[in-house]
Amino acid sequence: xxxxLAAAALLAVLVVxxxxxxxxxxxxxxxxxxxxxxxxxxxxxxxxASGLSINVRVRTGDGEDVPGxxxxxxxxxxxxxxxxxxxxxxxxxxxPSPGDYQVKxxxxxxxxxxxxxxPRSDTIAxxxxxxLGRTVAFRLSEPGSDEAAGGASSSQVLQRIATGxxxxxxxxxxxxxxxxxxxxTGLTNFxxxxxxxxxxxxxxxxxxxxxxxxxxxxxLGLVSCAVFGYLNDRVLWQPLRRRGTxxxxxxxxxxxxxxxxxxxxxxxxxxxxRTFPGYAGQAGVQVLPGVLLRPLDLWTMGLSVVVxxxxxxxxxxxxxxxxxxxxxxxxxxxxxSGIDVDRxxxxxxxxxxxxxxxxxxxxxxxxxxxxxxxxxILLLVFAAVTLGGLGTAFGAVLGSLIVGLFVxxxxxxxxxxxxxxGALVILILILLVRPQGILGRAQRIG
Length: 446
Description:
By secondary structure, this protein is an alpha+beta fold. The chain has helices spanning 2-28, 45-49, 154-185, 192-209, 214-242, 247-269, 295-317, 319-329, 331-336, 341-367, 373-388, 393-409, 420-433; strands spanning 53-60, 70-75, 78-84, 90-94, 99-105, 118-119, 123-128, 134-141, 285-288, 291-293.
């Protein structure tokens, strides 16, 4: 039975790889027209393929997208590219080569709905590196308002809290699997970010290439991640554990696996940003005074909460969940008590990989899909796990919500490019007071 499952899993992975080659070939074709599902294609296929595309977003302080605004890419005072924002308020600027650039918003080009609004600064400096995408955001407000002066109104704070909770739930889906894997194996898995990316990319293939309905495509994407997680442990990590490989060596292996998968994704899908068909340009609705969220955001937040509650109940109430917590506490004692440790670890890999894939799907709905989307939030996932307490699933969820809130709220007082700074600062401060994390247990060393 195990051989049959392994063979089926390998076949599924091969099918995903073959299907993924199709959009890469189309993107490489010089005659292919830009696709609505790939907004970066309009900025230049060559730059997108090499990862030298800067994504720009223009929004009002209330969260409304601003279409029709002209943005320019400057280097040394000379314009090297220009573009106009689409219905989602986004545009892609193709940089000719790696280096330092300035992204400038032409305030005079703002549509009538945004006339009279202005950004805190109409020019943002950024650095473009090979294979690393950049995102620049302009937030418009009325002249002399709290936001334009560097402050924030109560409605803007509420909006950031709402988006922070939304982002925190995405991080939690990825962090809880990473925490369970660390708790049961002691492995610091840097390749967990690629599981997040895999969920979004396979779902995109099933819906945009195979033409399946989104919900079915998402379900198959999660199954693909679960199968990959099973193979990950069966083929790689279990043999290394049985050989007595040290945790440091295994961590290095995970870094190598992460690099391989990330650039394998780049080879298959290119460096552009894609969106799920049918889920672009959805208008926001007012859920509270001054708080706008898309219906899609509300559905994904509700789904994330339900999934996290189900996982929490499974850990506390089910026999497998209790066995998982026993293995996390003391693997040797759990084995002596009759628990099949290898089976528990493999189940954790399957569930953790599926949760990471779901995190990627939700993140793709919110921000678009790219080959390095998981890597871009990996630091925040690690921060959430460490903040909540290493190896504790409930701590990972709590840490994720704190990280998500600080990332979003910090943009009210610091540039968007430094938005991860707030989360890392709070991580350092809490660990100085409580080194084991918020819900972690102090342990004797030596």
